[in-house]
Amino acid sequence: MRQRLPRLVVSLAGVAVVTFIGFRVIPVNATTVGFAYLLLVLLIASTWGFVEASLTSVVATLCFNFFFLPPIGQLTIADPQNWVALFSFLTTALIASRLSETAKQRALDAIERQQDVERLYTFGRAILLIDEREPFAKQLIQKLAGVFQLEAAVLYERHTGAIYRAGPDDFEGLDEQLQEAALRNSSFSDPERKRLITAIRLGSEPIASIAIQGTLMPDSVLQGIANLIAIGLERAKAQDLAHQIEAARQSEQLRTTLIDAMAHEFKTPLTSIKAATTSLLASPEQPPETRMELLRIADEEAEHLRELIDDAVEMARLSAAQIEVHREMSDPCQIVRDVVVSLHKEIDDRAVKICCDGPVPALAVDRRLLKLALKQMLDNALKYSPPRAPVNIRIHQEGEAVLLEITDYGNGIPVEEQKRIFERFYRSPSVTRRIPGSGLGLSIAHSIARAHNGDLSVSSGPTQTIFRMSLPVDPGGEPN
Q1: Distance, CA of 160 to CA of 183 (rounded, Å)
Q2: What angle do CA 211, 215, 217 make, to 5 degrees?
Q3: pLDDT, tens digit, 9 for 90 and up, residues 284-325
Q4: Are residues 355 and 413 in the same domain?
Q5: How far, in Å, CA of 172 to CA of 159, rounded?
Q6: Domain of 157: which CATH number?
Q7: Which of 48, 121, 129, 161 is most buried, with most CB under 10 Å away?
Q8: Structurally, how many domains does the chain consist of?
Q9: How many Cβ atoms from other residues are within 10 Å of residue 88's Cβ?
Q10: How far apart are CA 444 and CA 315, in angstroms?
Q11: For residue 462, is it within any domain?
């Protein structure tokens, strides 16, 4: 009403201007003035609406009678033909204003429908771009509230019983109605509060319900939203199922890989132990020195076998993402030396150089986990570099971290593969058939570094590759 009053005043002023110009400034005949009035009515109808145009038509008719139809200056008409002209003008003005108003309303409706289609398209596209960092349904209802500029929106998932809310306003006290809508496939509306509640169906079965506040959208748009939400929820369900299948597949692959790795690794110490015990049993009267040497070999290989079993169990536990860090102050240089000693058979006659630059502070680390990570890194360097090429290990402090760097002089890692090298089970296609491996070692080493609030990175060129483990001197805070 506040907006309409100024419009009415402007409309009456327009009639006054046309009357003044036609009566005083540029005297013209009644037909010309009639067309001028008609144009004014059409302009007002197309700009503001039927109410303003109707008032303008009536006032223009009165002015037309008073100022331009004989007898001039009176609201009477002498010639009966002028009555026909007057009512024809009034009827034409009203019909024209109504048609103009109808056309304007249709144009506005078309614009609204186009906006609804654009919003539905934007909402559908937003569903495809939802990431997996937060619950899918939560992000979905947030996208809905944002795209359609809703005051409040609520989504109820039937199979989980979870309720997700979005929008700047509170929308409390509708939980029972949402549940009833999802169970009974029903709808509710409250035009006064601009609230709508409707079920979301997948086929004929209701799977959820939504409540929105802030706009009374057409049923077609509401059903479009419900269909998109149903598709989105089903897509999320399919993704969850795919993740479960992938997790099961990786679990089976992990089990098979570990069994194969254990069988391969265990053969060497078991062969040595078997050879020593067989020799002792076959020749029990051997000299004491020979018997002691065979027993020493069996003991060393038994210890090696125990370490392999412990490593295999640890790898299985870490691959299940159950990393528990038991910290103790340790010398990183000594840990590196212990790892090199434990891999003496793999190293054989290779040149492995250890360099501790300057005083390196002790670190609060899990010695067993760090040894396991370094074993994987050193074993990787030995496998992927030429048999006689050296391997260098450097330990030094840089800022608030200690860096453990292992450098090999192999062919290098392609840039596109460096981003994936720490993924579980990933192996370069170029070496899969030439060099045995499981694709777990570097992934586990990376997880151990992260569990210590550190990191593991790689830099590689055509003739050199450096794996760099960074461990903080102060390990405070949660793991990365």
Answers
A1: 13
A2: 85
A3: 788 888 888 888 888 877 877 776 676 666 665 655 455 678
A4: yes
A5: 21
A6: 3.30.450.40
A7: 48
A8: 4
A9: 11
A10: 7
A11: yes
